[in-house]
Fold:
Amino acid sequence: MSWLGGVRARLTASLVAVVALTAIVLGVSASVVVDLRLHDQMLEAAAEQARFDLSVVVPERQLPDRPTPEDIARSGLADTFRRGAVETFVDLGDDARFQSDERLAGLLTLLPADMQARVDRGELAYGWLDVGGEPALVVGGRPAGGGPAFYFVRDVAGVNAAIDQLRLALAVGALVMVVFALVISRRVARSILAPVEEAGRVAERIERGDLSARVPVTSRDEFGTWAERFNRMTGVLADTIRRLEAAQHQNRRFVADVSHELRTPLAALVAEASIVGDHLDELPTESRRAAELLVADVGRMRSLVEELMELSRFDASAEEVAVEPVDVVRLVQAVIASRQPTARFDPPAPSVVVDTDPRRLERILANFLDNAREHAGATDVTVELDVSGGDLVLAVSDRGPGVPEDRLQRIFERFTKLDPSRSGGSSGLGLAIAAEHAALLGGYLQAMNREGGGLRLELVVPAVTRSLHDGDGPVTQAFESGTPTTTTRESAP
Amino acid sequence: MDARILLVEDDPSIREVTAIGLRNTGFTVETASDGREGLDRFEREPFDLVLLDVMLPRMDGLEVCRVIRRTSTIPVVMLTARADTLDVVVGLEAGADDYVRKPFEVPELVARVRAALRRVGRGPDDEAAQLRLGPLLIDIAGRTVTRDGQDIPLTRTEFDLLVDLARHAGQVLARDTLLDRIWGYDYLGDSRLVDVAVGRLRAKVEIDPAAPELILTVRGAGYKASR
Structure:
């Protein structure tokens, strides 16, 4: 699912980025344009007004040639201009000046030099200045026909505040758009990806073996086409799998039936052969050897049929694991005693108790030992037990001819006979059966050639050590398919 | 050894060769080919041991065993086709003392039959004639068990198991040990024999078999009788 999240995140991020970028570009350019336009307009209006005032209003008052501040105050010019929201500052020369408002007192020092120069030359000049802590537009000029320098000061704080408000509104608008884009894009992404997620769930069901699962075809778009193709493919695969399963089932059924049917005559043969075998000496020489062979062949037939039946039971999944605490050392010693008393075994501890299925462990070890006897004779067979590494490792090593490296893994397959001439009484199923038992215990088998010649077969079963309760050796818990098994037996109070 | 054995087996070859094998060893063998016939013969004539195939026509071996157990503690050895848990446990729970897996070799069967008969022939020991285990009074000579004067009927196997555990009260007896002493297996016997027999014994002697107080399980080791 993480890749779906990834696609959704990427989709959302791209859409939000596009929207945010658009909003920022639009907002910034809008505010810049409005700002410039407003200031230009204000400046134009102020210049127009100043030109009018200097050419018409000021000359009308007929000021003296060298007016004093008192002359200016008496003329009422400041009041006239104030009605147009303009404060007036007049530079009368020789440090004499008039100001209509106290805050304009230091205006001259604020004026840029080039502005004053232009005013002195009789031109109209302007500047955006900070007067008395307020942003202001100052337009300066001299009346037509000469006179003192007039400076008209307009407060532009209101305009600036309006522009700031506009900027704020644009920013908020951009933010809203981004949030909106976020919501919309998540929704769109979800609706685009919903069929993909649904298809993912269907694939999971198919993976778990539900071959009837199909992707719903809800649209006529590319995804709908894809879903149809996917469903067609699944249908074909399901058919094939069913056919193969049926064939395999029939096959296994046949093997199970055959071995089942063979069992009763085999049971008679085994009992009969055991009696003949007890009386071989009494048979006439002409038939004795034949009787000997008969007894041996009945034994071969018996193991073959029994092993086939055992495998059929695995194939039918009829095998159940019965876990109980088992002293593996004692079990190994007992199997060695019955199967191959000459095998060497050096227990790692007097007793190693593991929760496992003793019958399966016995079977695996017995098959290992049979294999060693068959291929290496009874000589020099060693059994090793190791539980130190968290796993239970049970190994049987021989000094036989070993197995060519490229065929090592195949020895756990059914009917693998490496040397048909030496097969003896073996059915070729013993190690395959051992592998099935190992799998049921949650473990596996491995085979390796030994240094100096010979084969080593290993059973590895997961197991963890747990605390002692009887104090009679290391106690280990075997795990079955990765989960700890619990025995249902009651324990002593 | 002239014990009389009733062999109930439907396959004629197996029936005949088994009878031959047992007769060669000195047993007297009577045969029956289905469950009903077997039960009829058992009720008409005296036998020392019954060999019962599980799969029988007319009445299966398990049912025959259950009927026999209603009236008799005679040793019953089942011949099972499969050694899987279900067959074995069901057979033992029907009251069988032991089982032999098909296919078997005749000497193997003879050994099991002898072990079962040996237990019957076991006379009173020179040890205590009576044992106590909690509220149970075990009369070894009379082969009876009573609780509060009430007789508890046990099969021979169950009785022997109880006596062995009671004699070693407080001591843990491994399954292998019990298999050897009660069933006569040297090694690699089927420990389910012990588990099922203990289960049956508990069902009879414990007040609450699910929470046993007399015969306790020692995980990873075996069983012990409480002291």
User: Anything to note?
Assistant: The helical segments of chain B are 12-24, 35-44, 61-71, 85-93, 106-121, 156-167, 175-183, 191-205.
